[in-house]
């Protein structure tokens, strides 16, 4: 039996899943000095994901050492990882990750990257192999489903990729870690969604000290 297709992201209270730019993540000290916005954007991204960094699962998955917090946030992070048999992401998300992920990328499953450029699969230590798909979102999802088997497929991002899959009626579930931060501008998670074709059914709402975890089933109208 095929698994679900799901989205799991962190989102600011005003609806953004990323700051205006992610270039600050890989910027040099000189670049940050020349453009102060880079530090602000990095600070926004760090605040958005602050609930993840202290977790035991995060420390284990990135091999940062022992220890870390347990509790419901940790359980949700681990459950999300364990249910995922393959991921799909956009090229811009991959390009940033290629520069910033550790050598052992944190997915440990196949990842299918939407792109216009042909490229051979890129295998990383720890079980992650990136496959580059040039023939559209349906092909990428078909390949991800086959790779995932009876586990779920995660649409990892960015927001444009998420909206493409939601608008195509291909997403079964959306989980949002709603962070108590405001961006004011950036990459809005549901920018361009066709609300006339999408209906959400709330499944769960779980508050934690750092975020509120919201889960919705996605239905076509």
Automatic annotation (TrEMBL):
**Which ranges of the sequence are coiled-coil?**
none
Q: Name one GO molecular function term.
A: 5-amino-6-(5-phosphoribosylamino)uracil reductase activity
By its UniProt entry, which Pfam families does this protein fall under? RibD_C
Q: What residue stretches are annotated with the Bacterial bifunctional deaminase-reductase C-terminal domain?
A: 4-209
Q: Which one GO biological process term can you cite for this protein?
A: riboflavin biosynthetic process
> Which SUPFAM superfamilies does its entry note?
Dihydrofolate reductase-like
Q: Which PANTHER family match?
A: BIFUNCTIONAL DEAMINASE-REDUCTASE DOMAIN PROTEIN (PTHR38011:SF12), DIHYDROFOLATE REDUCTASE FAMILY PROTEIN (AFU_ORTHOLOGUE AFUA_8G06820) (PTHR38011)
Tell me the protein's name: Bacterial bifunctional deaminase-reductase C-terminal domain-containing protein
**Which species?**
Actinacidiphila bryophytorum
């Amino acid at each position: 039996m095929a698994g679900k297709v799901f989205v799991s992201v962190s989102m600011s209270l005003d609806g953004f899943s990323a700051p205006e730019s992610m270039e600050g993540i890989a910027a040099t000290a000189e670049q940050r000095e020349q453009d102060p916005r880079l530090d602000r954007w990095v600070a926004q991204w760090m605040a958005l994901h602050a609930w993840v960094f202290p977790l035991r699962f995060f420390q284990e998955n990135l091999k940062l050492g022992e220890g870390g917090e347990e509790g419901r946030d940790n359980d949700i992070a681990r459950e999300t990882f364990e249910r995922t048999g393959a991921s799909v992401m956009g090229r811009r998300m991959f390009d940033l990750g290629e520069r910033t992920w550790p050598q052992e990328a944190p997915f440990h499953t196949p990842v299918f990257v939407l792109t216009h450029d042909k490229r051979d699969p890129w295998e990383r230590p720890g079980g992650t192999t990136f496959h580059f798909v040039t023939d559209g979102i349906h092909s990428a999802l078909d390949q991800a489903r086959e790779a995932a088997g009876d586990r779920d497929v995660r649409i990892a991002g960015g927001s444009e990729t998420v909206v493409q899959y939601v608008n195509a009626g291909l997403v079964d579930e959306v989980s949002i870690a709603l962070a108590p931060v405001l961006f004011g501008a950036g990459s809005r998670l549901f920018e361009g969604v066709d609300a006339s074709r999408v209906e959400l059914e709330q499944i769960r709402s779980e508050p934690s000290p750092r975020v509120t975890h919201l889960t919705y089933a996605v239905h076509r109208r």
